[in-house]
TrEMBL record:
<dbReference type="InterPro" id="IPR002995">
    <property type="entry name" value="Surf4"/>
</dbReference>
<keyword id="KW-0472">Membrane</keyword>
<comment type="similarity">
    <text>Belongs to the SURF4 family.</text>
</comment>
<protein>
    <submittedName>
        <fullName>Surfeit locus protein 4-like</fullName>
    </submittedName>
</protein>
<keyword id="KW-1133">Transmembrane helix</keyword>
<feature type="transmembrane region" description="Helical">
    <location>
        <begin position="116"/>
        <end position="137"/>
    </location>
</feature>
<feature type="transmembrane region" description="Helical">
    <location>
        <begin position="149"/>
        <end position="170"/>
    </location>
</feature>
<keyword id="KW-0812">Transmembrane</keyword>
<feature type="transmembrane region" description="Helical">
    <location>
        <begin position="91"/>
        <end position="109"/>
    </location>
</feature>
<dbReference type="Pfam" id="PF02077">
    <property type="entry name" value="SURF4"/>
</dbReference>
<dbReference type="GO" id="GO:0016020">
    <property type="term" value="C:membrane"/>
</dbReference>
């Protein structure tokens, strides 16, 4: 939990230091990172122990449940950064399929399957769109693509946590 707090403060500090709080794409990517951090914190929460030994609990852990819900919703903000207002078959396919999977993750319906599909989709998209290794080292565009690549990898990690943990208590 302490490490997640430090990482959260770095995300906030990064937003302030780069002075691009009002850049919507940057803001949505940071919200997706915060969602991933919320999932990590939720995973670290332990079930409350009963004072009576051997008595089963209802399995209800309110902070963990709400952290999972918030993390799930914030994680899908990554897809809003991928929306481009171009009219092509690939862009339309991305909007329809990605949007549908994003909604399924947000509401918690078939979360493990839809998260896994988003992992596959984002991985392919990330390798195709943010191929920083194809740009010579002296060009500034390489740094921008590398930044986008690793931020997208962070969100993929959060989605893999959803594949592992499931949607949490507040889901369909």
């Amino acid at each position: 939990e302490i490490a997640c707090g430090i990482l959260f403060s770095i995300v906030v500090l990064q937003t302030i230091a780069y002075q691009i709080l009002w850049d919507v794409q940057f803001l949505f990517r940071n919200l997706a990172l915060v969602g991933g951090l919320a999932l990590v914190v939720a995973e670290s929460k332990k079930e409350a122990r009963s004072i009576f030994a051997g008595v089963p609990s209802l399995g209800e852990n309110k902070p963990k449940t709400y952290l999972m819900l918030g993390g799930r919703i914030l994680l899908v903000f990554m897809f809003l950064t991928l929306v481009r207002f171009e009219f092509s078959v690939m862009q339309l396919f991305q909007l329809v399929i990605g949007g549908m999977l994003m909604c399924l993750v947000a509401i918690g319906f078939r979360t493990k399957l839809s998260s896994f599909m988003l992992v596959l989709w984002l991985t392919l998209f990330n390798i195709y769109m943010n191929a920083f290794w194809t740009i010579p080292a002296y060009k500034p565009m390489r740094d921008f693509l590398k930044y986008d690549f690793f931020q997208t990898m962070s969100v993929i990690g959060g989605l893999l946590m959803l594949v592992s943990l499931g949607p949490g208590g507040v889901s369909m």
